[in-house]
Design goal:
heterotrimer, A mainly alpha, B alpha/beta, C mainly alpha, B: Rossmann fold, 2 domains, globular, C: mainly alpha, ABC transporter involved in vitamin B12 uptake, BtuC, 14 helices
Chain lengths: ~300, ~250, ~325
């Protein structure tokens, strides 16, 4: 039982990182029907921006909540800029092209960020310094609560609250949801589609950047290929929840984080990565719209 | 027993009644018209006949055999060909290839024949090429055989769709607004063409059309559908003078 | 009759080219072994071992690309798990030949290896195909991505085929001559499939599934056929890969490989067989050609340029380099 609680705590922390990345996937899919494969790499870029910010801007900062928030903001701003550049130069020219072209472009951008990252940051892993005073709290019965996990959980929660305010309570959110119903109609009723898409990329990338920093906090060795697997898994989480659905992405991510941790803990860690894909296949075969998604019918 | 029977057919979409108790009896070799205001459910009847929507209740029988539960391609193979209100051609294929696809189920060369390009393969390809060209000739678009279908002008696309449906060698041909979007002279030409083909091949045709001139001129019997229900059937004069039909089209005051 | 003669001539020509290539490379050895199944013991300087392996990789990538084209370009089924089928072929063929027929003659090894690879991959393709083909568009892509990765992870966990270390000491019986010749044969097979009755049905389904239904074409049947043929050929590509390299590991068959093959299709022009070949050529040769740039600049800039080229082609020429066109020798008219 204690082991189970320990796994649950670890799973929730992992799940909340996935959730931040999955939100970006799902938002971009909502407005553009694009699986933005480069999103996982923006997550990686966020992690490195955080690292370099600590190294060069605040080299002598003591680990504290304040430091962490500064690093987080720097990574979010940096990632958002990268997101804007990608949307403006890679995706926008292809707005009217077949979807597979945009998908290939996304893959190309993903490779560009990975190899570009290796060029700029170097291929070997780097150590992500402590930005938070870390405490291991024994809450009885061999269950250890890492203060970092708590912070990750709280920070993700706060960011998601901000996002849900943006999406459900503001004019931008209404426009974004309108576009995800129909881009053409949204255009016709005078919504500035390009602007809304751009803001969607800013928000999605900023969240991914934040996730990158939190990932660095939890697993302090980062390298330019870091975004590959977590990116893919966050994408699967988004599909699990129902791609395009914001609440679904969070639920999917938490489920994935938990089940991965359980499988690694109780069965074998080598099959941990397969689990995500098994979940993906089962969801798509049984309920292609995901947990919260809806089914579409072709009109004749 | 009629050739095609629709018996008490109803179709509902989550409580919305698209068709209610529709009864049709089509005899072989006759040209029928199906008219009605927009949204009356005319295309829906076509979609039921071709197996796209299974009817909620009732039965559809072709030569006595029930079509309910059969897949669309199986129904097509049994000899029901159709065109679409919004044209659905294979745009990247050439005009000729579009018609040749219709021979898919009546040809038999297998993968090995195709890979080794055996004599049987060449003979069959040649055979359906000739047949397809004949159909294009009938529709008057033979000279466009090698043009991609997507590049045809609208009127010719309508004709190609009919040629393609004829490639199935159908016993029953369903035409969904074949004259929509055509100018008067094109409509006149197509009207005569449809009648000629129907007579020459002695097939049954059921035609949805808004152009009353066309319908009244060539249809031997007309069904009128209003809000998913058949309100009237008969020859042109009967339908033209039916009170319910006039009400449905002109409204009641 | 003219057509048969032309095909025959083409084959004869290709045969001569293959023979010449191997002749030049393998130190002017004129015997069957050197021409078709022995890896050259020494190289004549005209082509180095490095170029030799790039050329072999080119052949294998062309097979992968044209086989995916059958699914993606012709039938309109978007899949992202081609590397998985290649993995099945590679591991199956390597196991059959290494464990059962290590000392058999070349022809037996080639037949047993390629056929077992193709059949195993085709069977898995059939199973995956029948279970997922009701899914459309991106969803099919996602689910095949999942299957591809699961296949890879399963091989990663089988110790008999080397697990994470990879499988070594696989009999090498393919050389440039045989890879080249068989690649051409596979291209011709795909061309013939696409030009006949089946190819028309595939295109019809891609263009408008509803209308294809109304033509009496069973879409599920055609899609499964496309899936099986395509995975069969991807399996064969895997087999060729295993028996020309002599070493395989799951690292080769990640989803990155699947993406690479999709990129070959799209760069060349989706729906064009010539495009699939051209795309495979460009995406195989480009990263190798860029090694020179890397040598000059001293920067690891090779793959960055590769990725950038991919993005630029998509933006500047979204229909791909060939668009819908075909080279003359591959066109149906």
């Amino acid at each position: 039982m204690n082991e189970f609680i320990q796994h649950t705590i670890n799973g929730l922390a992992l799940g909340s990182i996935y959730a931040l990345v999955a939100l970006g996937y799902t938002m971009v899919f909502g407005v553009l029907q694009l699986i933005n494969f480069a999103h996982g790499d923006i997550f990686m870029v966020g992690s490195f921006i955080g690292l370099y910010f600590i190294r060069f801007a605040i080299p002598n900062a003591e680990p504290s909540i304040f430091t962490a928030i500064m690093v987080l903001i720097a990574a979010m701003v940096g990632s958002a800029i990268v997101g804007v550049i990608i949307e403006k130069f890679a995706y926008r020219p292809l707005r009217k092209a077949p979807r597979i072209n945009i998908l290939i472009t996304a893959i190309g951008v993903s490779l560009l960020l990975e190899y570009g990252g290796q060029l700029v940051f170097g291929a070997s892993p780097q150590f992500f310094p402590d930005i938070l005073p870390r405490k291991l709290i024994d809450i009885g019965g061999d269950i250890i609560l890492d203060s970092n996990q708590l912070t990750i959980f709280v920070m993700s929660f706060v960011l998601m609250q901000i996002l849900s305010f943006l999406v459900f309570k503001t004019q931008f959110g209404r426009s974004m949801r309108a576009i995800s119903h129909s881009l053409e109609t949204a255009n016709l009723i005078g919504i500035n589609v390009n602007k809304v898409i751009l803001i969607t990329f800013i928000i999605g990338s900023a969240l991914a950047g934040a996730a990158g920093v939190l990932y660095g906090v939890a697993y302090p060795k980062i390298d330019p290929l870091l975004g590959l697997l977590p990116g893919l898994k966050a994408f699967i989480a988004a599909v699990l929840g129902g791609i395009g659905n914001i609440t679904g992405a969070v639920i999917g991510a938490i489920i994935l984080g938990l089940s991965e941790t359980y499988v690694a803990g109780y069965i074998s860690s080598t099959y941990r990565d397969a689990l995500a894909f098994v979940i993906l296949i089962i969801v798509l075969l049984v309920r292609p719209g995901g947990l919260l998604g809806s089914k579409k019918i072709e009109k004749v | 027993m009629a050739f095609l029977e629709v018996e008490n057919m109803s179709l509902e979409f989550g409580g919305v009644k698209a068709c209610q108790n529709v009864n049709l009896k089509l005899e072989p070799g006759i040209l029928y018209g199906l008219i009605g205001p927009n949204g009356a459910g005319k295309s829906t009847i076509f979609n039921v006949l071709t197996g796209i929507y299974p009817p909620t209740t009732g039965d559809v029988r072709l030569s006595g055999e029930s079509l309910v539960g059969k897949k669309p391609f199986e129904i097509a193979q049994k000899g029901i060909g159709r065109t679409f209100q919004n044209i659905r051609l294979f745009k990247e294929l050439t005009v000729l290839e579009n018609v040749m696809t219709a021979f898919y189920s009546s040809t038999h060369t297998n993968l090995a024949d195709q890979i080794f390009e055996t004599k049987a393969f060449h003979a069959e390809e040649e055979e359906i090429r000739v047949k397809a060209m004949e159909l294009l000739d009938v529709m008057g678009i033979k000279d466009l055989a090698d043009v991609p279908a997507g590049g045809l002008p609208y009127g010719k696309q309508r004709k190609l769709e009919i040629a393609r449906a004829l490639g199935l060698n159908p016993k029953l041909l369903l035409l969904d607004e074949p004259a929509a979007g055509l100018n008067p002279s094109e409509t006149r030409e197509l009207t005569n063409l449809i009648r000629d083909i129907q007579k020459a091949r002695n097939i049954t045709v059921l035609l949805i059309e808004h152009d009353m001139g066309l319908v009244m001129k060539i249809c031997e019997k007309i069904y009128v559908l209003v809000q998913g229900q058949l309100v009237c059937e008969g020859v042109a004069e009967v339908v033209q003078n039916d009170k319910r039909v006039i009400e449905a089209y002109l409204g009641v005051d | 009759m003219g057509k048969i003669n032309k095909t025959f001539l083409l084959f004869a020509l290709l045969f001569v080219v293959a023979v010449c290539l191997n002749f030049i490379m393998g130190g002017f050895n004129f015997n069957l072994a050197a021409l078709f199944y022995e890896k050259p013991g020494r190289f004549t300087g005209l082509i180095s071992p490095y170029y030799y392996s790039v050329l072999i990789l080119l052949g294998i990538n062309i097979i992968l690309s044209v086989s995916l084209m059958l699914l993606n370009g012709l039938t309109g089924l978007f899949t992202m798990g081609h590397a998985g089928f290649m993995a099945i072929g590679a591991y199956c063929s390597a196991s059959v030949v290494s464990f059962l027929l290590p000392d058999a003659p070349f022809v037996v090894q080639l037949l047993a290896g390629s056929l077992s690879a193709g059949l195993a991959a085709g069977l898995v393709g059939f199973l995956i195909g029948t279970s997922c083909l009701r899914l459309a568009g991106d969803y099919l892509g996602m689910v095949t991505l999942g299957f591809g990765e699961i296949i890879r992870i399963v091989f990663l966990n089988i110790d008999a085929v080397g697990g994470a270390r990879g499988m070594t000491d696989i009999p090498v019986y393919m050389n440039l001559g045989s890879v080249f010749l068989l690649t051409i044969i596979i291209i011709l097979v795909i061309k013939r499939i696409s030009n006949g009755r089946l190819g028309r049905a595939m295109l019809a389904i891609k263009e408008n599934e509803m209308a294809a239904n109304m033509m009496g074409i069973n879409p599920l049947n055609i899609k499964v056929k496309a899936f099986v043929i395509s995975s069969f050929m991807a399996g064969i590509a895997g087999s060729f890969f295993a028996h020309s390299e002599g070493y395989i590991s799951t690292q080769t068959f990640t989803f990155a490989k699947s993406f690479e093959v999709i990129a070959m299709n799209v760069v060349g022009g989706l729906g064009s067989l010539s495009g699939a070949i051209m795309g495979a050529g460009i995406l195989t040769v480009l990263p190798e050609a860029l090694r020179k740039v890397q040598d000059i600049t001293g920067l690891d800039i090779r793959m960055v340029i590769y990725a950038l080229t991919m993005v630029l082609i998509m933006i500047l020429r979204p229909q791909g380099l060939m668009g819908n066109r075909e080279w003359k020798w591959l066109s149906s008219k």
